[in-house]
Amino acid sequence: MRYLLVTLLLTLSGCAVQPQPFSVVIDPLSPSSIRYSGEINPENVTLFEKLIANAPTRIDSLIINSGGGDVFAGIRFGGLVYQYKLKVVVDKVCASSCANYVVTASDDVIVKSGGLLGWHGGALQPFYQSLMLSEKQRSEVKLGAQQAEYITHWRKAEEDFFKLIKVNQTVTVLGMMPELVDKRDAPLFSYDQQTLKQMGLNITFEGEQATTSSSGEYVVQIFSLSPDVLDMLLIQHDKRLLNN
Length: 244
Fold this sequence. Notes:
The protein has helices at 2-12, 42-53, 71-83, 97-103, 135-141, 145-165, 178-181, 193-198, 227-243, and strands at 23-26, 33-37, 61-66, 87-95, 109-111, 116-118, 188-191, 203-205, 220-223. By secondary structure, it is an alpha/beta fold. The strands form 2 sheets. Strands 1, 2, 3, 4, 5, 6 and 8 form a 7-stranded mixed sheet that branches. α2 (42-53) runs parallel beside α3 (71-83). It is globular.
């Protein structure tokens, strides 16, 4: 329950893991690449869109370092990555909305050695996938009518996005499902390369997948799921959606 509550509060406040100085520039050493560092929000994504649209040469790569941000800006960002068919390079961190929408939108992702890739939930996580929260739960997370409307809008936008990019939307929420959440021991979750591939993602890691921050804090738990276990989890997820 602890991570469910934390995730919901993070989501409704914008899904950013931590504030970062923002910059978006064409890489001076590689004019076909854009470097994006910092929060994902509408203003920053607009600057990215203007930069890629007006770049003097064709942009084919995005080098990103972001702890996340606004979910709708993230979906828009991911749409641009998909539209321009960008290769994505995770420099130091790509978490939350960055993992949900930027990484998933690319069919060629490289995570640099030491780079962190982590999810902490999405619009379909079991805790509020149908908005059928008890009064006590609503009180715990301070979820009112406005937030419920927000989640409904987010859920539709996210569903449309994943249909567009042809990636299994459940990648954003597996670590929040009852079958796995009790095994969680880190605020973020990720998957090994084979599990990611089964979910429709092509992600290459330089060296071992990182689980700790630069300061040595354990922040990402990696799940390795066999095809049978993954199928079981997806079936359970689909049943919950049908029942709600």
